[in-house]
Write a structure and sequence with these properties.
The protein contains five helices and no strands. The chain has helices spanning about 5-20, 20-35, 40-60, 70-90, 100-130.
């Protein structure tokens, strides 16, 4: 297994930690792709990755009120769209794949870091809500129905 394969596995774990359905779908599509990609021609491999990235980015944009983890998924699938398009061009021009692999590794690390941060923020928000404490330090009583910052009832 290559470095990017290991980073992808950690990325899937961070998507589970962030409790993001869109990120898990993104990871599952990439996992299915990597299962079938050894039997694909190189142009088809890049074309499939570009389609997966496009579909994920457009699906996240279509969500009416996406979660923060879904927005993270959309942003990074857009980044992977650019990276895989550049990888296709580099493959077509017979350039070495070292730069493509390094950029993919950097995007994987950035994406998993964002998911870990979002997962820990979500757990902190949940813990504060369960303890009855808001982030401003005021007591929040869920039974009273105090409006939260999005205008809904807490």
């Amino acid at each position: 297994m290559s470095l990017n394969d290991w980073l992808f596995l950690v990325l899937c774990g961070s998507a589970i930690y962030a409790k993001s359905v869109s990120a898990l779908l993104f990871c599952s599509m990439y996992a299915v792709h990597s299962f079938y990609s050894p039997n694909m021609e190189q142009w088809a491999r890049y074309a499939t990755l570009i389609l997966i990235d496009s579909a994920t980015a457009f699906a996240v944009v279509a969500i009416r009120s996406p979660s923060r983890a879904s927005v993270i998924t959309g942003v990074f699938s857009g980044a992977f769209l650019v990276v895989n398009s550049a990888g296709f061009v580099a493959w077509y021009l017979y350039l070495p794949p070292v730069t493509y692999d390094a950029v993919c590794s950097a995007v994987y690390i950035a994406m998993m870091t964002a998911f870990f941060i979002e997962g820990s923020n979500g757990r902190r928000r949940l813990a504060l809500r369960c303890m009855g404490v808001s982030s401003a330090g005021a007591t929040v009583r869920p039974s009273v129905g105090v409006p939260d910052k999005d205008g809904g009832k807490a």
